[in-house]
Specification:
485 residues, mainly alpha, Growth Hormone, Chain: A, two-stranded antiparallel sheet, 4 strands, disordered N terminus
């Protein structure tokens, strides 16, 4: 009997390689990039959630009116986005350095975000210090706004200046370094980690706002410093195509170059209908988030008689649900496309807020409302971010995001935030009982109306999405659509 010839073991195939532009990743390298970016998202969300969750309560405790809260939280942010994001997005898209085009911006602005965020809860002490001087003190006392609210406004303004620059660079970085094949799943995880940050704010920190605001702000500021410095150190950018020359020519003066660049920006950003409808959708979504959602916390507190701790615990549940469903939703986005998922998320959140206006009468109905609207919020915000990456051309992503910010910020700063604050101040003390079958008496107050305003914003966003889908079907459909240049 002849002996069998040994068969050499099959050599393993080449390790899978994932690409994002000129970057290539092994599976381990991709996991490492995901880890750093997702860690930064927790801190990013903690900072973003301070505004609609913690700052309104803190400002209210120091006597701010609803109009003042709307201006500080909504209008300030919108105006700064209008001023900063378009030119910064245009500039970073065209920036070429050995460290990349987004990392240098993150590196330089992060220490200032940390500083101004940490100083914000010290506004009362800073106001008292300024009042101790004859000149500044007399000037502050002569103004129609109380000194402590003025100082709060100044500190929020300063930290929003640098945080807006962080927003521009960070979301541009995501688009540059995450492979398109994994973007839906990444954004799902991105929002999972964001939900974790929101859960921290709502469950543990919201009830401590009145007594522990300084440790809350200082702790988040220091985490921001550590995390974004780590991102700058460990996340690497690739190479980018050469920058198109300025249409004014190399020998033109500064004013001519700026004017030529402005005309190119406007022509590239506002001539395509699909981009205009995307801008409309985001006006509605961010008008709801930045202009209106800061007031929803007062509905259970002042009109349902619930404590902030109780409200915070209930608002945590949607974030926990999102942690469970996020990855399947991300897979659904990768398989069915962002428009399909966003459409159903918008239907869910619109019905949820309109239903909340009529049906929420106590803690248990508020919990049900929070579960519906809170879960839908995470679906909507994840899907809309993926939608911009499907529709905006990758070479002009930050530029188009900046162009969107111009119209978005004008609408929020000039119309949505001031109108909401004015309406709530004008209706202060108003109350009406509406008798509904199977529900009983529903007490209508000014803060209950915020539910209806939010439902209107999300319903309009759903209408805008229908127009985007119509445009995409006419130009190749979801599978063959090419973003216009």
């Amino acid at each position: 009997m002849s002996s069998a010839t040994p068969v050499p073991p099959a050599s393993p195939g080449p390790a899978p390689v994932y690409r994002a532009g000129s970057l290539t990743y092994t599976a381990g390298g991709l996991r490492a990039v995901f880890a750093w970016l997702l860690g930064a998202e927790v801190i990013f969300t903690l900072i973003d959630m301070i505004e609609p969750k913690v700052l309104p309560v803190l400002l209210k405790l120091h006597g701010a009116t609803d109009t003042q809260i709307a201006i500080i939280l909504g209008s300030f942010n919108a105006v700064l986005q209008l001023i900063i994001m378009p030119p910064l997005g245009y500039w970073t898209d065209r920036l070429r350095t050995r460290w990349g085009r987004r990392i240098p911006v993150l590196f330089w602005v992060t220490p200032f975000v940390t500083l101004f965020l940490a100083l914000t809860p010290f506004a009362p002490e800073i106001a008292d210090w300024l009042l101790s001087f004859d000149g500044p003190g007399a000037w502050l006392k002569s103004l129609p706004v109380t000194p402590v609210i003025l100082v709060f406004g100044a500190l929020v303004f300063l930290y929003r200046v640098v945080q807006t620059a962080t927003n521009t660079a960070f979301f541009g970085l995501l688009r540059d370094v995450v492979p398109e094949t994994h973007m839906g799943r990444f954004l799902a995880l991105f929002r999972v980690f964001g939900a974790a940050g929101t859960a921290i704010i709502t469950y543990w920190l919201l009830g401590l706002t009145a007594t522990h605001s300084k440790p809350i702000f200082i702790g988040i500021a220091l985490l921001n410093l550590a995390c974004f410095v780590a991102v700058c150190r460990f996340v690497k950018e690739g190479t980018y195509p050469p920058v198109e020359p300025n249409p004014a020519g190399a020998g033109a003066g500064r004013a001519a170059r700026v004017w030529a660049a402005t005309k190119v920006f406007a022509r590239e950003s506002y001539r395509h209908p699909v981009y205009l409808w995307i801008y409309f959708i985001r006006i509605c979504l961010y008008g709801a988030l930045l202009g209106l959602s800061g007031f929803i916390i007062f509905f259970p507190q002042y009109e349902l008689g619930m404590s902030l701790t109780e409200v915070g615990h209930m608002l945590t549940w949607p974030s926990l649900i999102w942690v469970v469903i996020a990855f399947p939703v991300g897979q659904l986005v990768d398989r069915r496309g962002a428009t399909w998922v966003l459409r159903w998320g918008l239907v869910m959140i619109t019905v949820g807020y309109v239903g909340s206006f009529f049906l929420v009468v106590g803690p248990w109905t508020f919990l049900v409302s929070s579960l519906v609207t809170g879960t839908a919020f995470w679906i909507v915000m994840m899907a809309q971010l993926k939608l911009t990456q499907e529709v905006f051309h990758p070479q002009r992503y930050s530029q188009l995001a900046g162009a969107n910010t111009i119209v978005q910020s004008l609408m929020i700063a000039v119309i949505i935030s001031p109108a909401c604050g004015w309406i709530l101040d004008a209706l202060k003390g108003w109350q009406y009982t509406l008798e509904l079958p199977a529900v009983g008496g529903v007490v209508l107050g000014p803060y209950r109306l915020v539910n209806l305003m939010l439902g209107l914003c999300y319903g309009l966003a759903w209408f805008g999405l229908n127009r985007v889908e119509h445009h995409m079907r006419r130009h190749g459909g979801p599978d063959n659509y090419v973003a216009p240049l």
